[in-house]
Amino acid sequence: MTGPTPASCIPLIIRDARVIVTCPGRNFVTLKIETDQGVYGIGDATLNGRELSVASYLTDHVVPVLIGRDAHRIEDIWQYLYRGAYWRRGPVTMTAIAAVDTALWDIKGKAAGLPLYQLLGGRSREGVLVYGHANGADIEHTVETVGRYREAGYRAIRAQSGVPGVKGAYGVGSGAGKIYEPADTALPQETLWSTPAYLRHAPKLFEAIRVAHGEEIELLHDVHHRLTPIEAARLGKALEEYRLFWMEDATPAENQEAFRLIRQHTTTPLAVGEIFNSIHDCRTLIQEQLIDFIRTTVVHAGGITHLRRIADLAGLYQVRTGSHGATDLSPVCMGAALHFDTWVPNFGIQEYMAHAPETDEVFPHDYRFEDGYLKVGDTPGHGVDIDESLATKYPYNPKQLPVARLEDGTLWNW
Description:
This protein has 414 residues and is α/β, with parallel strands linked by helices. The N and C termini lie far apart (64 Å). Strands 4, 5, 7, 8, 9, 10, 11, 12, 13 and 14 form a ten-stranded mixed sheet that branches. β10, α10 and β11 (320-321) form a beta-alpha-beta unit. The mean pLDDT is 95. The protein folds into two domains: 7-116, Enolase-like, domain 1 (2-Layer Sandwich), CATH 3.30.390.10; 119-378, TIM Barrel (Alpha-Beta Barrel). The protein has 13 helices and 16 strands.
């Protein structure tokens, strides 16, 4: 005998989808998909500095083809949006696809009455190890900030410091608690960069941190694509004695083979991938074991459906995940990422920058920080919602990411 059809198997027809743009401290783009059964899901569609391009892509090109489809058919809809488009990949397209994908997984979890991690296969761990950002105008200030993060319970900390003679060094804010990336300017701010000064300074920073805080704390560092491969190799070698958890974005990775040179010269672990949007951006890096951590994100790498494929490939080569998680991603992305992190077997670490209070109010969520870990709740779906009425109180505010130039005026990688 057959019983009644489970609620989780009844088709959920998409009747509406709309884009919500809000700026509670940072600009965020959110896609909300509603079904004929009243079940809805939300997905993050934020592309820092290019937010409205994704909002337009979704509104003009994606939403119309979603109406009338069964929200349960996540894989088919993903393939339709990816393979059905002649112009594949790219950050705008893949961010838009990710928003749809995340919202559909949210719907499926709600329909099943299960948290997202259960749909993926259940827990692989009780908590998600996260790292915070300790930034300082100089070495002394950064060492002090690392201490504050340790007191707050962090077990892993990314350390960045101002570089003498370098105006606007990456990772250093204009003051305590200041967000250091976008600026409220019509045109991008220009910062100065000096590779020789940085290469002299960075080892001194980590020597000071180890002297002050010992060996137990995990330390990370972001180079932010500033070095050539051989320069990155030099830095990695110089930092080996300070046992970094990873050295991030050591050189631009459009040329994946460039990491072979770095790998030949240093045993400092390498992480890259926050700006990747496809498995093809990291195939060589993973298959040749040129990196130790892949940093692709839910929102920029095509959603959970595609990120899972990247992680599965990485797992074959003992490469672990370490997803981007700065405040340019909304709590919707963080919630989805934490469910993914809770499940994925080859997890490494998760970046975590706490959002502004007004952001948390607009995006209520059930994840929480405890003793160096983020833990997800058991709310069906990904556990993050949006207060639309409150979101309207924070209109879009154009913000520009900076650019960098060398001392002679040459435009450099930011």
